[in-house]
Every structure is written in C-alpha cells, then in structure tokens.
Write a structure and sequence with these properties.
Layout: H1 2-26, E1 31-41, E2 46-56, E3 59-65, E4 76-87, E5 89-94, H2 112-128, E6 131-136, H3 143-152, E7 160-163, H4 195-207, E8 212-216, H5 235-247, E9 251-256, H6 259-268, E10 272-275, H7 281-290, E11 293-295, H8 301-311, H9 315-338, E12 341-342, H10 359-365, H11 370-376, H12 379-385, E13 402-405, E14 419-424, E15 427-430
Parallel strand pairs: 1-4, 5-6, 6-7, 8-9, 9-10, 10-11, 11-12
Antiparallel strand pairs: 1-2, 2-3, 4-13, 13-14, 14-15
Helix pairs in contact: 2-3, 4-5, 5-6, 6-7, 8-9, 10-11
C-alpha cells in the first residue's frame, strides 16, 4: 500500500510539473519598447535620432523612428530619450578568472577553484560595465568553461562567453608555468610540443568545452624567463594547430608579440593575432591579405607600469612592458592606418575587470575616430567571433544586448566608461 501511494504521488507530481511546463511554454514573451534619444547605428557608422526599439523576449523584433513605430499593446516603456543608445560591447581578449592583484609568485597560491569563484565576480562587473559578450582566451582548470556554463544556466550573472580553456604553448614558453624550481617538475596542462602533440592538445581543449583555441606563438610580458619578441611555436606546429582547430569548427587566436611569430601565425591561418606589439610592415600586409584580425591591448600598459609592482608582477615583466608598451601603441596606429582589421581586446585580468572601456580613449588617441573604436567592439568583434547574426548591432533578429550612456560617446569616447543602462538578452542588468 505504501509503495502504491508513492507511485500515485509521483504520478501526481509529474502531472503538476507537466502542467507547469505547459503553462510556462504558453506564457507570452515579455515585450519592451525602448525609446532612444540617439541610437548609434554601428553598421552604417551613423547616429539616428529619436528611435524606438521593440524587444520581445530576448530578441530585438523591430527598430525604427519613434514617430512611425508600432508599439504592441501592453509593452513596457523604457525611456532613454535623453541618452545615447548602443549595442552591448564586446571584449575579444579577457581572462575573467584572473585576479590582477595576484600576479607573479602570488598567483601560485590561487587554486583553480578560487580562480573560478573570482571569475563569477569578474563576470558580473564586466557585464555591469556594458560588455555583454567576451572571448576568454585562457584559464586554468577549464574555469572559463565552467563560468560560461554557469552564466548560460542562469546561476551566475555575466556576459555571453566564448572560451578557450587552457592556452596551448611550448614547454618552457609563455603558456607554461616557469615560476617553480625544476625538482618540482611542473608543466602546464596546455603544453604541447611538435605538430601531432599540438593537434592532440587542440582535440583535448575541444573535448572539454573550448569554443576557441588560444596558442602562444611568442614569448610574453608576464611570464618568467622568455622574451616577448622571440618566436616559440614553429610554422609547422602552428599550421597543425590551425588545421585541427578549423576542422573541429574552432577559430584560433594567437598570442604573438614578435614580428616573426606574427608573420608565421598569419601564414599558418590563425583568425586573430593578440597583442601584435612588434608587428612589421610585412606582417601588416599579410594580415590584410589573409583577412586576419589584430587584437591589440593598448590600455593595460598603464596599469602594468603604475600598479604592476604592487600587484606582484615580476620586475623583469615590468621591464619588458616598459620596453614594449609604446612600440605597441605606435604599431597600432601604423596597422590601423594601413587598413588592417581591428577587433577590440583589452587583456582584462591584467588590469581590474570592469575597466575595459578605458581602452577606447587610447584607440582614439592612436588613430581611430570614436565611431571606428566603437565598431571594433561591436560589428567587427562580432565578425571575428562568428556571431554577426546574434550580437554586435541593434537590429531585428539579434539578441537584445543594449547599453546607454548619458553623454555623447561620438564627441568623447570616454563616456563609455560611465554606462548608465545595460540590457542583456532583454533582461535589464543596470538602470
């Protein structure tokens, strides 16, 4: 009798659950009408006055002049008529699970679990700063994959994420851990030497949830014992990685400071070159010919030089940045002027998360107009992500990822550091 009662109870609960699900499925999507005083059309590169955006559920369903807009009955009105409205911003080079104040040897005391929990906070402040999408290019313990999934499941507040898992590099290179003595025999999980081992590492990253493959083609600034300008992976190894990644439907981002590493990475077919500090004219020409994006983090030099020692960065790292930072900014100007494709990326995690928009002013200082800088963080970043159909512009069919500022970012791009309204997928995050 007791067993029969349990069966009946379970059956009743199942019926109730099914009814609840049926009701939820039948419930109409919430409709919002956003009135924008000014709307930045990043596709056309223009600013439109007095526009109305209709949002149904998580998508934009209509955009047009307020005077002729048809607002559905019962729609909730959001009045941004005194503000400038833009698409949610995209940062193509982040490390959300990295704490910038735990650098150098201090980082050895941070467990993968602690880093992932730090990432939950970093994700929230990044989203609140108006960055509704990020590409995370390297995290230990697949912490960025876990963070992405937690955001997608609604457990954590954060931006849309494309993740890399571990960055792949040579033994002893920028993507290895060189802080510990040899008797400890520590090698980072992303290390792979030789074409076939590198192919296997791409497969491992894909297996455990990486959306994009990150490689270290050259030495780096914040690593011990290597030179940023020195090439690490060979052309043959990079070709194997790119071939395997593309075969598996993943794009490849290459950390590359040195001129030869940049040329080899582009020749191998990577989709983007990160940092590109010492890019030469041949590298710029190759990037244009191949359609390769450059993602140049020209803000964080300030943080490294001003706060690096307090954050625990090695003295050699600060010296490397001092030698490299201005060269990178000058080459940003040259590459942009030459016509290379640029996507916005900041290396967030080297500096405090949420300060991503500080880079816009530097991009304008080194050659872009405010509109071009904004486009690098919207339509161009969306193109590099492979998400042009989803994000990067305010248009019917795309996710309702929308931000607003009270000032005019086309007159002063630094206005983007003071975002007053943030919406992600139709949900209001900041108001």
């Amino acid at each position: 009798m007791k067993f029969k009662h349990l069966v009946v109870t379970a059956t009743a609960l199942g019926a109730i659950s099914a009814a609840a699900l049926s009701f939820a499925a039948a419930a109409p999507a919430k409709v919002l009408a956003i009135r924008a005083g000014k709307l930045v059309d990043v596709v056309a590169g223009t600013v439109l006055a007095d526009q109305t955006i209709i949002v149904t559920g998580e998508r934009i369903t209509a955009v047009g002049p307020t005077a002729s807009a048809t607002v559905p009955a019962g729609a909730e009105l959001i009045d941004l008529s005194g503000q400038t409205v833009l698409p949610g911003l995209i940062d193509m080079h982040t490390h959300l699970t990295a704490d910038p104040m735990q650098s150098g040897y201090a980082a050895l005391g941070v467990s993968d679990i602690r880093a992932a929990l730090f990432g939950a906070r970093a994700a929230r402040v990044t989203l609140e700063a108006g960055f509704t999408t990020v590409r995370n290019v390297g995290a230990s313990g697949f912490g960025d994959v876990a963070l992405r999934d937690a955001i997608n499941d609604g457990d954590v507040l954060g931006p849309r994420m494309r993740t890399a898992g571990y960055a792949i590099g040579i033994k002893g290179g920028h993507c290895d851990n060189n802080l510990l003595p040899p008797d400890m025999n520590v090698t980072d999980r992303g290390v792979a030497d030789g074409p076939w081992e590198a192919r296997a590492k791409v497969r491992e990253m894909a297996k455990y949830g990486a959306d994009v493959i990150k490689i270290c083609a050259s030495g780096g600034v914040l690593s011990k014992g290597d030179e940023p300008g020195a090439q690490q992976y060979t052309l043959e190894e990079m070709q194997a990685i790119v071939d395997e990644a593309h075969k598996l439907g993943r794009k490849v981002a290459a950390h590359a400071h040195g001129a030869s590493s940049i040329r080899a990475a582009i020749t191998a077919g990577v989709d983007s070159v990160e940092h590109a500090s010492l890019i030469d004219e041949q590298g710029m020409r190759l990037a244009r010919e191949k359609g390769t994006y450059l993602v140049m983090d020209i803000y964080d030099d300030d943080f490294i030089l001003q706060e690096g020692a307090r954050a625990g960065m090695l003295a050699e790292s600060i010296d490397k940045e001092r030698a490299l930072g201005q060269l990178q900014r000058d080459n940003f100007r040259k590459a942009f002027k030459a016509g290379d494709k640029m996507a916005f990326g900041t290396d967030a995690g080297v500096y405090p998360h949420g300060d991503n928009a500080r880079q816009f002013a530097y991009m304008v200082q080194y050659g872009m107009t405010p509109m071009q800088a904004i486009q690098s963080a919207t339509v161009q970043a969306a193109d590099l992500l492979g998400w042009k159909d989803r994000v990067g512009a305010i248009a019917a069919g795309k996710f309702a990822d929308i931000i607003a500022v009270k000032g005019d970012p086309l007159a002063n791009v630094a206005e983007l550091t003071h975002v007053s309204f943030v919406m992600k997928g139709g949900a209001i995050i900041r108001r």
